[in-house]
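It would be a great kindness if you could assist me with a short task in structural biology. I am sending you one protein, given as its amino acid sequence and as whole-number tokens for its backbone shapes. I would ask you to consider whether the tokens describe a fold that such a sequence might reasonably adopt. The full record is reproduced below for your convenience.
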Amino acid sequence: MQAPDWNDYQAFLAVARGGQMARAAAAMGVDATTIGRRLRRLETRLGATLFEQTREGQVLTEAGEALLAEVEAMAQAASRIAEQAGGGGPSGLLRVSLTEGFAGAIVAPALKSFIEAHPRLTVDLVASSGLLSPSKREADLAVTLSRPRAGPVIAGKLSDYALRLYATRGYLAQNGTPAHGADLARGHRLIGYVPDLLYAPELRYLAEFEPGLSAVVRSPSIMAQARMIAAGAGIGVLPCFMGDADKWLVPVLPERRIIRSFWLVTHKDTHSLARVRAFKDWLAALTARERPKLLPR
């Protein structure tokens, strides 16, 4: 029996990591039909069904789980060989999962220096409401809001950061400036997250400023919340590195703030890869430089 093509294994790995044919196709730069053809060919040659089709996408079977461990080891070995043979610095694909606000306000504006220093890398900066998981090999690195309690990962605190309430001067002139936390519940529109779409409990902010507060204008996107606050729609909580940078916003109850933390997470099997080490070092240096924005006095 002819051995499966390495491209078939790569297609399998992409689907296992992404959970959907479309995501795997996008990651590999091919169409979903090609991914499906490679998977069927691999299953035929191995004599096993590797995925079950669900409404959400593809879920690994028991045979698929067993194969995944072997294919991931092959992929890691291939990455190490390519890095050692290249001689020109880290190469390949680096996928980084970040919170939306941190990516947009801190990482993306500075990323030019990293990609110029590592021209052989392809960088996926996945900034969204919700995070990819290094433990499931969905990303090489992730910046999360809490330290993972389990899984084959290595995690360390990247930085603390502060959050405050913000509004526009126009909104406060029209609706009054709260002097105490209890004032927020009287005649003010509060902007925040959709409760049942929270991807982390650390995003439950409002009750820490005043028990019982709830938002009446809601979005799962911190960028959308920031734009609504800047448009005068109400008062909301933003990281200081976002709120202080917006000239249209002023702090509300400026003496009050809450602290959260960013954690840098990598998989145990890939944390020593050159491309992963390079980004970790760059991100640590960037965070140190941006500390005054993350934790303003």
Summary: The chain has three domains: 6-85, 88-159+261-294, 161-258. The chain has a mean pLDDT of 89.
